[in-house]
Amino acid sequence: MIVIRHLTKQYPTHLAVDDVSFEVGARETLVLLGTSGSGKTTTLKMINRLIEPTSGIIEVNGIKIGERKLHELRREIGYVIQETGLFPHYTIGENIALVPRLLQWDERKIQDRTRELLAMLRLPETYLNAYPGQLSGGQRQRVGLARALAAQPAILLMDEPLGALDPVTRSAIRREFRQLEEIRKKTIVLVTHDIREAFELGDRIALMDGGRIQQIGTPRELLLHPANDFVRHFFADQWLSLQLHVFSLEDLSPYLPDEQTPSPDARIFPAHTQLADVLQELAGPESVVFQANHRFITVQSATIWPALGQLLQNQTAS
Ligand code: ADP
Ligand code: MG
């Protein structure tokens, strides 16, 4: 859906993006991860032509973006930024309806879509007539997302969308994102410097440094098979906790004892659930049950760790 080949942005004094190539498939979320100044934002802004490349090719749906009319391209691509870019003197309703109005949707359809988005992003309808300044940072960020989604673009570009929020709010919004069907079916390029965010939201991660992609792959590939020392060191601090994001209950199942007859009040989890999400639910010594390979398997916080230890030993041995 998005194809990028040998993309370079040379400023007079600085090579911001240096020969970057990647593809983003339909419905895929690719995260551009890296420290400040690594070239993430410049790469993202070249996709919707806010910045013109020095050289290289960008295709969206098989067509070079330089050959598209700018307003048509931007209509297909939603864009969410940290500062939200909401107009302070427009109401929340007017902010969300901005693009549908430009596209001259009829007023009824605009109202329906606006209310649908508010409900989806859990914003009360009474906010329709409020102004951005009256909302909290987290609520403004949801409005920014609603506005980007309003005209149903197939592609969403997000630049540190949660960057201005506190860690607890960030984590809660991330969990909601992952559960929203409308977001899951979009092609997304998300920029962040937050490693956990990248692991929670990315189908694949492109780790950037000095304008170059150091490695691109699934979170599991980057963590278990780092391409070089830079990648290895980048994740070193959080190496253990990140395992909880790349392994599921099913991965753990060979290292856990069977449960013959799960108790009737047992909480049953899908086998593909990430271990991080399981631990979030497991407060204290209680257990959860899941089914994999026709077995019922019980897991408790006390048994997750030894089983994970064995799993890791096998992973690094293989
Ligand atoms: P990131 O989003 O990863 O923090 P950016 O893409 O914003 O990084 O910037 C990458 C590099 O390019 C930085 O070193 C930045 O200083 C430089 N840069 C960005 N914009 C310009 C510009 N207009 N002129 C010169 N250098 C720039
Ligand atoms: Mg940036």
From TrEMBL:
InterPro entries cross-referenced by the UniProt entry:
AAA+_ATPase (IPR003593), ABC_transporter-like_ATP-bd (IPR003439), ABC_transporter-like_CS (IPR017871), P-loop_NTPase (IPR027417)
Decide whether keyword Isomerase is in the record. Answer: no
The record's GO molecular-function terms, alphabetically, read:
ATP binding; ATP hydrolysis activity
UniProt domain ABC transporter: residue ranges = 2-235
Entry's Pfam families?
A: ABC_tran
Q: What Gene Ontology terms for biological process does this UniProt record contain?
A: quaternary ammonium group transport
* UniProt KW keywords: ATP-binding, Nucleotide-binding, Transport
Instruction: Tell me the superkingdom of the source.
Output: Bacteria
Q: Which family does the entry's similarity section mention?
A: Belongs to the ABC transporter superfamily.
The protein's name in its UniProt record: ATP-binding cassette domain-containing protein
Q: Which organism's genome codes for this protein?
A: Larkinella knui
